Queue: 2 jobs
Job 1
Amino acid sequence: MSKGSLKPSVRVLVLGPMTGRGGLATVARQTTQAASLPTCILSVLDTTRPPGPRSRARAIVAHLGQIVALCGRLRSFRPRLVHLHTCSNWTFWRTTLDILVSRLFGAAVVLHVHGGFFDRFLDELPPWGRAWAAFHLRLCRCVVVLSARWRQRLLQRIPGLATAVLPNAVDTKRYAASGVRRGNRVLYVGELSEAKGIDDLLRAWARLPDALRRMVRLRVAGDDPEGRQSHLQALCGESGVLQSVDWLGPLTHDRLTAEYAEADVFVLPSHGEGMPLSLLEAMAAGLACVVTDVGAVPEIITANRDALVVCAGNPAALAEAMTGLLQDADKRRSIGSAARNRAVDFDIRQFHPRLEAVWQRAILATDLPFQHVTVKNSA
């Protein structure tokens, strides 16, 4: 066994919303696939919330039940390492209890931070709140972030944290383009929330030339946790574009794969992102993408080569970018091909060795060299 490698059969407990939807849940499931690594024995605790609204009191009671389940698993499985997934707001504060309990049972903790507004979440805390958050983050043997930019943002706010960069991953073989593309489909994948920029996209859609818009469809796929679809449809009605928009709702993995295969342009107009899985999936499918310059997006793509980039909150720029791609098949093919090639750098088959390196660093607690993946294209 080489120096610095994990001992065989290290016990790792992974907590996350394994049956949930969205990017965090997808990465949590990808983490559990590390069970195939010869260096660990994995146990998984599903923390998926039941669907539908509920009061804060019920949420607290539900999480206390999860804490009881966590204690039982820690006692019976006796992991050396606990891998937790979290994001901003209430989810983070729930996770602090998981951190405390795991440490009380003697397990090292790796905290995997997701979401596009974690820096804003820390900035908006009162001084005591940031100190309390920093205390729990420092209890972790390693805090995993999605990109070098996110690492810099976190360390600016809480210096001295032990961090590691672990980019999100995509199964590039699954999304290999196989559908028929006719130049008439634009695809959006994400929640119907204002933070995801769907309002900007619909305003941009209304700005497309009438003759062009009559020939294309905007396909909107995703959850509606805030109940905004009726508002968005009214927005479309006011601008006269309702009949050209298809509301698909949340899709199964297979149906979403089919949508990627038959789309021509993918649009991600978010106001904030961690490292968007939908963008990686669209790139793996060879789609020409229009994206905003938020989160780790500038580290994934090179503007005008792998995707077209616009500023967040700018419907006019979105409309111009979509129009240019829809009217130029050669440009779509060129950008889509470059995107597909770039997506290979984030293939799921590279994710698990990188994850193992993070666990190695956390368990051994040494200054062993840790190779951060380079997620920026060369010019």
Job 2
Amino acid sequence: MDANILSKAEQWLHGGYDAETVSTIEKLIKENPDEITDAFTVTWNSAPAVSAASWA
């Protein structure tokens, strides 16, 4: 797993999220690092870009 992805995932472990979320993140780190990598990169990179031209 990429160190940046691991760092982001670990922030979720200590970010005050509910126990279910923390448990899911812990499980993904240990058992399915590819899925957590996809979750952090696809989700964050899929937001549409907004530009001044799109406001016209």
